[in-house]
């Protein structure tokens, strides 16, 4: 999963890191408080062969915190991550459907403050479970409509709401580069014998430039120019484009054709959650928010208030996100051990939470994954 460029950059950033790594834990809201302990338990249980030890820092953020204190993302949390943590895990955040004065999403703010410009979401089926899928959705993480520059005004007695969609050449170059590097790295793993649906790397640029010719047009053109200007490096990658609405259609009709998909923030968000349906549940899909020298693992599911406190939240997405965090921190061997244990749990199909049709508890699944180390 880890691109060679990202791995090189992050290895430099972590080259002086001690074997005892400090991981920030931000449970957030709802079931985030139930699944983030899964990441902690898995890290503590990793075999000593990897030479890693972990210590943990409990950090605060979320809508519930905002309701209590008026702050969704305390500066203390950001400062601790910048100065004391080698990586972090973020659980979930509740998102009110109506405007709440003074509130904005803490995970969106955290991505900006920590310079985490890429959201990397691998979606891969386990053999015999669900549709054959082996794709990575690389989502630009800092701009598009998520800059949250909105206004509302009246005209002719009617309210009109407007939101700014921002696409910049700089941000698009960054996300295009990491997507292309991930495509190369995935092919390198295949050539070493890694199982895959794909024989050749490809990248699919998703956009809506047939309508948004200026903003999405810039995204499309920037990634294409990056690809063509570096043909000596990226020429082995098949370059493709897909308009976002037809991308959704094809993703559900023929998911096996997609390798690496790169998209602006909003489209990437929607595609990522939709792709989770192909592998059974949002509860098994991981992600990582990645910058040049920091990574936050984040399960793709929300705070799920309907099952909060019942002890049945699926911890697999968090466990996989923990592995993905380790991968981007420069510890792919430890990450692989976690992936293998999770795949074994899913393939055996006996200990699983209700979202996958089982009756097991959150802790049952955690214990079963750990026993496979």
From TrEMBL:
UniProt cross-references to InterPro entries, sorted A to Z: IsoCit/isopropylmalate_DH_CS, IsoPropMal-DH-like_dom
Residues of the Isopropylmalate dehydrogenase-like domain: 22-369
A family per Pfam: Iso_dh
One Gene Ontology cellular component: mitochondrion
Coiled-coil intervals, chain numbering: none
Keywords: Amino-acid biosynthesis, Lysine biosynthesis, Magnesium, Metal-binding, NAD, Oxidoreductase, Phosphoprotein
GO molecular function terms noted in the UniProt entry: homoisocitrate dehydrogenase activity; isocitrate dehydrogenase (NAD+) activity; magnesium ion binding; NAD binding
Cofactor (UniProt): Mg(2+)
Record has NAD as a keyword: yes
Homology family: Belongs to the isocitrate and isopropylmalate dehydrogenases family.
Name of this chain's protein: homoisocitrate dehydrogenase
